[in-house]
Amino acid sequence: MTGLVIVAIFILLAVILVQIGRLTEVAAVIRGEENVAMATNNRNAVYMLIFLVVFLIYCVASAWFYKDRMLGYGPHTAASAHGGQLDSIFNTTLFFTGIVFVITHIALFWFAYKYREDKNRIAYFFPHSTFLEVIWTAIPTVVMAILVVRGLIVWNATMADVAPEEEHIEIEATGSQFLWEIRYPGADNKLGAKNFRLIKPGINPLGQNWEDTKNLDDFLVGDVFYLPVNKKVRVRITAKDVLHNFYLPHFRVKMDAVPGLPTHFIFTPTKTTEEYRQELKNYPEYQALSDPEDPESPQRWETFDYELACAELCGYGHYSMRKTLKIVSQEEYDDWFAQQQPYYMSNIRNTDNDPFKGKLLKVEAAKRARELKSEFKSAMDSDKLSTIRLKNVFFETGSSTLKDDSKYELNEVAELLKANPNVKVELGGHTDSTGDESANQVLSMQRAESVVNYLSSKGVSQSNMSSKGYGQSRPVDTNDTDEGRQNNRRTELKITAK
Fold it and tell me: Between these two residues, 24 and 144, which has the higher pLDDT value?
């Protein structure tokens, strides 16, 4: 019913307009078309003059009203090292174009009023003026030269890539409908290789090549990602499907993400999220409640966060392409970084997609070395005699021959024991319950002796070590499952004297 009423209203309006047009034609015939044309011309000229004044006032008033909400003004100064230069060139451009806008706006509508049709006025014939042509050619040329040269200087400074040995953080942003995937390098500070042909949704979303060991410690982040303040950041930018645009407005970072054509941007954050909030705190617009319907909600400045958005209309879900960026101190960033889990380790390791399935990786060995140092320190600080399980000591099946992967952990044990020459240890060998019990007892003793001999070859005093085989007598897990039996097959280092 409402729809029919609306349609009827539009039909009536159309009829009224048509009738007004007919009445105007009739009035023109009655009063004379020339008089009507003059009246219309004078009326439009007055409207032009009114528009001149109203529009100028509106432009100035709206600019003043929104001054604290526009980038580059009020609280929204740039939060990056290069942002101030971009703001400066924009302000310079706005200054000159603003002058041109005001002059042309006044001239356009004032002339429309002043030089409206008048039967008593004769037009002045003005065919040519070299002086005027020089003026309106030379001035724009000089102004444009200034803008172009300044813009070129700022562009070259902004787009300069990092030097080969320059300290920086490199991350990668991949746009797709409708999200950003942010990838960080791990401890090696190197991003691994990708190939779009390797993309598998839910398994390998970026097409990382797992045979490239630089990929093994790379990690992906969720809706929030972190960067340290005052540290140069290089962002690799690409896309998987359509054109996107990597946009960090507060840092004056904006670069297209193009499928098959990687781009990049370099910037240095200069204000932490908390520092920016404190700047917003001083402006009335940001002292309003973040939720007007909830009197207990925090103020707008308290909820502010830097935002990564997509500045390209990439489809119906374009609005949802946002992530929160936290700029924090180096210490806070390091703490956050240490908590991140490599995508390979949490999703690929020892699956059928893992080219290193069943092999010990250097990154795992390095992590275990850090853990071993911590466990050894705790054992030394404890009043009790402690036992440390050696997690990466492996033997050939049914043999006491050490596998090559065992050297990483045993080398670390050797260094710890050499650094503490007063410590005496027992190397204990354990097996699962598979096979003959007496044979397992002998095998466990032989394996413990193999470990002692290896450590001795690395410089550990033989007199500080003993070996003992426990066979299958001390299980730590069930022997009914493969995982349980694997846990029972172990080598332990027991500190017997400090």
Answer: 144
What 208-213 contacts at long range (C-beta under 8 Å, 24+ apart), as own/partner pairs, is 208/343, 208/344, 210/344, 210/348, 210/353, 210/354, 210/355, 210/356, 211/355, 213/361, 213/362, 213/363
User: What is the distance between the alpha carbons of residues 266 and 159, in angstroms, rounded to a whole number?
Assistant: 7
417 and 473 belong to one structural domain: yes
Helices (H), 66-173: 83-114, 130-159
- From the list 460, 469, 458, 350, the residue with the least C-alpha distance to 407 is 458
Same domain, 377 and 299: no
Phi, psi of 277 (to 5 degrees): -60, -40
Based on the number of CB atoms within 10 Å of its own CB, is 33 exposed (0-12), middle (13-18) or buried (19 or more)? Answer: exposed
Position 401 in a domain: yes
pLDDT tens digits, 375-414:
888 888 887 878 889 888 888 888 889 888 888 888 888 9
CA dihedral 346→350→351→355, nearest 10 degrees, is: 110
CA distance 388 to 286: 56
Asked if the structure places residue 232 within a domain, the reply is: yes
pTM, 2 dp: 0.71
Say if CB 243 and CB 257 are below 8 A apart: yes
Distance from C-alpha of 471 to C-alpha of 441, rounded to nearest angstrom = 4
**Cα–Cα distance measured from residue 354 to residue 360, given in angstroms and rounded to the nearest whole number:** 12
Residue 109 sits in which domain range? 19-118+130-159
- In a domain, residue 4? The reply is no
Residue 32: the pLDDT is 58
- Residue 125 falls within a domain, yes or no? no
**Cis peptide, bond prior to residue 178, ω within 30 of zero:** yes
Q: Are residues 414 and 460 in the same domain?
A: yes
**CATH value at residue 217:** 2.60.40.420
Please write the tens of the pLDDT for every residue from 2-48: 667 677 777 777 777 777 767 666 665 655 566 777 778 888 888 98
- Contacting residues for 433 by C-beta, under 8 A, at least 6 apart: 440, 472, 475, 479, 485, 488
Half-sphere exposure of 385 (CA within 13 A, CB side): 10
Chain segment 83-120, per-residue pLDDT in tens: 888 888 888 888 888 988 999 999 999 988 888 887 77
How many other C-beta atoms can be found within 10 angstroms of the C-beta atom of residue 409? 21
* Contact call for residues 232 and 169 (beta carbons, < 8 A): yes
- In this structure, the answer to whether residues 37 and 139 fall within a common structural domain is yes
Same domain, 200 and 264: yes
Distance CA 471, CA 433 (A): 8
